[in-house]
Structure formats: C-alpha cells, structure tokens
C-alpha cells in the first residue's frame, strides 16, 4: 500500500519545517515512523516549549513525550541507558506487560515458522545488545523457549557459536524437517532405522 510511504514523505517535510522554525532545537532527532528519539541539551522549560511548538504545526499531528527515568529510556524494542561517563548504552527492551508467549512447540505450524521465531529473537539480541549484555539476553531467550515447550537440543542451537553451520531438526507428525538458514528439507518417515540413516547422511 502507498499510504505508509506517503505518510513518511509528509513526516519528513513536517519534521524539516518543525526543526527549522523552532527557537531551540534538539541535539539529536531520530525518527522511525511515528516514534522519535530526542537528545535535549537545554532546560526542561525549553523542552516543554519545543513540544508545544511541534503540536502547533498541525492539529492532526500531536506529539506526546516520555522522559528518561533513572537514566533509562525505551525506544521501540531498544532500551537506551546512560553510562557513568555520560555516553549511551543499549540492550533489548520489553514492556512490563510482555507475556513471552510465542509459537508453542506443539502448535500445528510448519517447523520453519517455529525456527523463524527462534532465529528472529536471537538475531534481535545480537543486533541490539552490547557485548556485555548479549549472553544475558540469549539466556533469557532460551528460558522463554523452554517455557514454550521446546526441547533442550533445539534450545542449545540458540547459542551463536554452537548454531553456526548447524542444522535444526524438528519433527512434525511422521515427517522430519532439516532446517538450515531458513530453508528446510522434508524427509518422510519410512521407519525409525531408515529415518535415522537418512538423517545421518543429511547431517
């Protein structure tokens, strides 16, 4: 659909006008769709004036504001925090209402979809977390999938080192699926011995 593209074009024009006409502007202005991350180096009163300026441009576009608390601020699924040296760090953010419910291992979905969910959460951890937070987030993802019924061999593949070049084997009904890098091979189950031999050859 064209509507998101057109909306983004309009917001680019909107923010360009807003920043050019503001009495005082932010030190940094980053936007994703309708969420903005702003670094403000002036007073709180001037920040309120800047918010009023934004909301005065178009009656149908009204901004709300969330300030950092205890040196932390969430932006999308990233938690940005202030280090002791005043630089910014980042790790994965979850809302307090997040339930950690994903596709259960026993759900009637194709194994590639289940692997896709696991792989997506792992890639999110790798892309967002700083090195000192990565292992903690990976352990959290492992716990989440354990609670969603996944087996220990499947969960062990979430380790970035162990999963490199590995194949995930999920079983659905009477069929084995070998999944590697998002693509799968279907191996019908003709018998335990035959299936085992076929799996050994494929792995």
Provide a descriptive summary of the structure in words.
The chain has 203 residues and is of the alpha+beta class. Helices cover 40% and strands 20% of the residues. The chain has helices spanning 3-21, 44-55, 111-128, 131-147, 152-156, 192-202, and strands spanning 28-32, 35-39, 72-75, 78-82, 88-92, 168-172, 175-180, 183-188. The strands form 3 sheets. It has a 3-stranded antiparallel sheet with strand order 3-4-5. A 3-stranded antiparallel sheet has the order 6-7-8, with helices on both faces. A two-stranded antiparallel sheet has the order 1-2. A hairpin with a 2-residue loop joins strand 3 and strand 4 (78-82). Helix 3 packs antiparallel against helix 4 (131-147). The protein is elongated. The relative contact order is 0.07. Mean pLDDT is 80; it is low at 165-203.
> Would you identify the regions where 5 or more consecutive residues have pLDDT less than 50?
165-203
Portion of residues in beta strands equals 15-25%
Radius of gyration: 24 Å
Average pLDDT confidence is: 80
Number of strands: 8
**Count of helical segments?**
6
Reported for the largest beta sheet, the result is: 3 strands, antiparallel
Helix content: 40-55%
Question: SSE order in H/E notation?
Answer: HEEHEEEHHHEEEH
Spatial strand arrangement across the major sheet: 3-4-5
Helix/strand structural class: alpha+beta
Based on Cα principal axes, name the global outline: elongated
**Terminal CA distance:** 42 Å
């Amino acid at each position: 659909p064209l509507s998101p593209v057109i909306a983004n074009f309009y917001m680019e024009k909107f923010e360009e006008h807003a920043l050019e006409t503001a009495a005082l502007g932010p030190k940094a202005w980053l936007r994703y769709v309708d969420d903005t991350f702003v670094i403000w180096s002036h007073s709180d009163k001037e920040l309120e004036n800047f918010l009023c300026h934004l909301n005065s441009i178009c009656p149908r576009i009204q901004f709300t504001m969330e300030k950092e608390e205890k040196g932390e601020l969430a932006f999308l699924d990233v938690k940005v925090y202030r280090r002791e040296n005043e630089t910014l760090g980042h790790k994965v953010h979850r809302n307090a209402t997040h339930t950690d419910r994903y596709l259960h291992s026993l759900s009637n979905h194709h194994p590639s979809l289940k692997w896709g969910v696991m792989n997506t959460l792992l890639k999110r951890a790798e892309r967002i977390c700083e090195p000192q937070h990565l292992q903690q987030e990976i352990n959290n993802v492992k716990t989440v999938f354990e609670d969603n019924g996944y087996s220990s061999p499947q969960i062990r593949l979430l380790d970035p080192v162990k999963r490199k070049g590995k194949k995930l084997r999920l079983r659905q009904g009477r069929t084995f699926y070998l999944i590697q890098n998002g693509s799968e091979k279907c191996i019908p189950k003709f018998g335990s011995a035959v299936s085992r031999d076929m799996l050994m050859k494929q792995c």
